Amino acid sequence: MWRCSRPVPVALRRLSGRSAELRAWRWGSTTACERALQYRVGEKMHGYTVSQVTPVPELFLTAVKLDHDGTGARHLHLAREDSNNLFSVQFRTTPMDSTGVPHILEHTVLCGSQKYPCRDPFFKMLNRSLSTFMNAFTASDYTMYPFSTQNPKDFQNLLSVYLDAAFFPCLRELDFWQEGWRLEHEDPTDPKTALVFKGVVFNEMKGAFADSERVFSQHLQNQLLPDHTYAAVSGGAPLCIPDLTWEQLREFHAKHYHPSNARFLTYGNFPLEEHLRQIHEEALSKFQRIEPNTAVPPQQRWEMPREHHVHCAPDALAAGSPRQTTVSVSFLLPDSLTGPRAANWSQIYLGQKREGSFSNILIGCHSGSFASHALPSRAGAWCERDRGVGLSARCAMDFLITDARSTHPRIFI
């Protein structure tokens, strides 16, 4: 979230616990911040227009927000005197089914691109690069591709690989079979053996859903937000993954992996102008603005509470224990408690479990509100102290989760 910009001296005076001399020194010594503060709102460079410049002396950085004129892509640069520079490109990916198309696409775009058509250029860079971090992630409503490095030339090389992989991937059908799903003989050398499903993502999600906690949390999100993309399993449900086709994968990429649906982030002390020039020339200049229509609408509020029961395999590490049940009471927060207010609300009420805090009153003891009201009266004898309360911000809509794990099934009798 963006901070309200105010003059640096005012911000410095409001910092507590440090001397004015130290605070002035730490701000004046950050060369990258000084360069960023010279940008002006409305200034144009390499196809971008500066829309906001915000000093954040508490974090030793200056935030610069830019918009790409041709595509509408947004860019956030965090200028800080840190040699470990970071780049990330994010796409809002909102699947409406559980075939795992954003997850399989995340894998497949890294299997070769127009400029780098070799097999798996991403993994080939792991032992050829000076990077300090390289990865890719698929979440419920976005997919991101981050890397970091301390070497300027390595940064340019990795940026070229990432841009070409994200915007111009080969998306070969063979790679789809490899990364997504395929039918293969149980013994590839014996065509008489049974056909089985295989695939990198397919096998990965089979392992993920072997974890009962993962199954529980996934069902919790699907049931609490059932009207749009959060009702689907973005990583892919093993029973649904075989429904995905190669053509659907390519269509999903064309719609979601477009600069108009992208957010760029850069961080560190490397010059911003060089980042913008390379991103514009190698990727954004080759696209026109579109309306991606990937926004997630607000969840319709319920008039009555709902219940849902999930059955999963027992925990293999707790074999023989009857305490295999998790009980949860979750609340979708009102819009007034989302965004910046949600962070404050979480900090005030759900921070440390100190005596007298909301979390301690709610679940900290057997006589607390959760144990005495959310659970049956006999639950105290069958509930271990593995309880939690938290504010989930994994989605566009935040929700409060209270749960008691390792409980005995007799509390439901």
From TrEMBL:
Q: Per its record, how is this protein called by name? A: Pitrilysin metallopeptidase 1
A biological-process GO annotation: protein processing
A Pfam cross-reference name: Peptidase_M16
GO function term, MF aspect, one: metalloendopeptidase activity
GO cellular component terms, alphabetically, are: mitochondrial matrix
Q: Where is the Peptidase M16 C-terminal domain?
A: 244-336
Residue ranges occupied by any Peptidase M16 N-terminal domain in the UniProt entry: 95-175
